[in-house]
Design brief:
Blueprint: E1 32-33, H1 45-57, H2 67-81, E2 90-93, H3 96-107, E3 113-118, H4 123-130, E4 134-139, E5 141-143, E6 146-148, H5 151-161, E7 163-169, H6 181-193, E8 197-201, E9 228-232, E10 246-250, H7 253-265, H8 273-285, H9 287-311, E11 316-317, E12 325-329, H10 337-347, E13 350-351, E14 353-354, E15 365-369, H11 374-391
Parallel strand pairs: 1-13, 3-4, 3-7, 7-8, 8-9
Antiparallel strand pairs: 2-10, 5-6, 9-10, 11-12, 12-15, 14-15
Length: 392
């Protein structure tokens, strides 16, 4: 490979949430962190060089994107996902979670019901309840590690609770599904039938493996465009989450206006200058780096699959169709969620994400971030294997 993803970079003492806050978050000192979803790989040189050049100018005043930024967005989504956008339908925010909260205020009222499909990225539920909306949960169906939507339950919950919005995770975090066009069509048809607005979080859309294909929700059917917002960001793809830039696509002009009004009400206007710079450089020049990264990450997932089958057959694992997150079924260990949390941190010496935070269906699971050098992943699995062996 042209790019060296095996190289280990010391991230300690960089104010890294992943590495520098173990004791503050109740973890033992020295625990190996494979939890929060950022990668242990340096960004491509195109991003580094663009940021250095911008820093050399030395003035960092209020900034807005020019036409070439919009063109870069258009070219990226067309080339990577076959999605022909109107670039001026994008609105910029700092993060997707911030955008989700803002969209909820734009398209629903206090007390309205919002549905999610758990287990799912835990800020979804927090966004609903913190904005005083009613949280409705439709559980995904776990078929031996392969998850599907319970469409009958999904529609039943919508009709029973007069649901006004649905937060979709595509590709799905943490279970790794890349929803098919047919699955998205069924979800969208139900939402159109019952007047439900869809907030589609597609932050992991660039991480798809094998024959799987990411389908932008808006493109599934022509009529879906008016009932959705597509939330995108370069933050996961290019490991620039700390630069706070997201691009939110809203076709419906009235919803886009309401969204802008809510942003204004929160005092948000111009985006982060470094975020804009990094995003444009990433989307303009980062494709080759990403293509090699995808090969490497798929190799990490293949390694995990082989290691678990050979050394930890009691752990359930289905290689994800998308994302760089692995969902480990550890229910066979017979530990409560509290016991499993303690076991992982204090016996295995690993800091993963506890499955229960993603919802009831995550009880007994752990989410591991596999976006790290393979040697790190191998060391982590050895630690887990030794700790499980000591349980006997």
């Amino acid at each position: 490979m042209k790019y060296d993803f095996d190289k280990i970079h010391n991230r300690l003492n960089t104010n890294s949430l992943k590495y520098d806050f173990a004791t503050e978050r109740g973890m033992p000192k020295g625990v190996m962190p494979l939890w929060v979803a950022d990668m242990d790989f340096k960004v491509p040189e195109s991003i580094e060089n663009a940021l250095k050049k911008r820093c050399e100018h030395g003035i960092f005043g209020y900034t807005d994107p020019k036409e070439d930024y919009y063109e870069t967005l258009y070219n990226w989504f067309l080339s990577r996902h076959g999605w022909s956008t109107n670039p001026h339908n994008f609105t910029f925010t700092c993060t997707i979670v911030f955008a989700i909260c803002t969209l909820l205020r734009a398209v629903t009222n206090v007390g309205d019901a919002v549905i999610i499909t758990q287990p799912v990225y835990y800020p979804f539920s927090e966004s609903v309840t913190s904005n005083k909306r009613k949280l409705i949960i439709s559980e995904l169906v776990n078929n031996n590690g392969y998850y599907t939507v319970d469409f009958a339950d999904f529609e039943k919950k919508i009709t029973e609770n007069n649901v006004k919005a649905f937060i979709l995770c595509n590709p799905h975090n943490p279970v790794g599904r890349v929803w098919t066009k047919e699955e998205l069509a069924r979800l969208g048809d139900i939402c159109i039938k019952h007047g439900v607005f869809v907030i589609s979080d597609e932050i992991h859309s660039d991480f798809v493996y094998g024959k799987n294909k990411h389908t932008v929700f808006e493109t599934v059917k022509k009529e879906f465009a008016d009932i959705c917002a597509v939330c995108t960001a370069p933050s996961k793809t290019f490991n620039i989450a700390g630069l706070h830039i997201s691009n939110i696509y809203i076709h419906n002009a009235e919803i886009r206006r309401k969204f802008a009004d809510e942003l204004f009400a929160q005092g948000y206007s111009q985006p982060n200058v470094m975020g804009l710079t990094a995003c444009q450089a990433a989307y303009a020049y980062g494709a080759e780096w990403l293509d090699e990264l995808l090969v490497y990450l798929q190799g990490n997932m293949k390694f995990l699959d082989g290691y678990i089958k050979s050394n930890l057959p009691q752990i359930g694992f289905t290689s994800p169709e998308g994302t760089y997150l692995a969902w480990l079924d550890m229910r066979s260990l017979g530990l409560s969620d509290k016991e499993l949390k303690s076991f992982m941190a204090n016996k295995a010496g690993l800091w993963l994400d506890d499955g229960f935070i993603f919802g009831k269906g995550g009880s007994g699971f752990q989410r591991i971030n596999a976006a790290c050098p393979r040697s790190v992943l191998a060391a982590a699995m050895d630690k887990l294997s030794n700790a499980i062996a000591a349980l006997k």
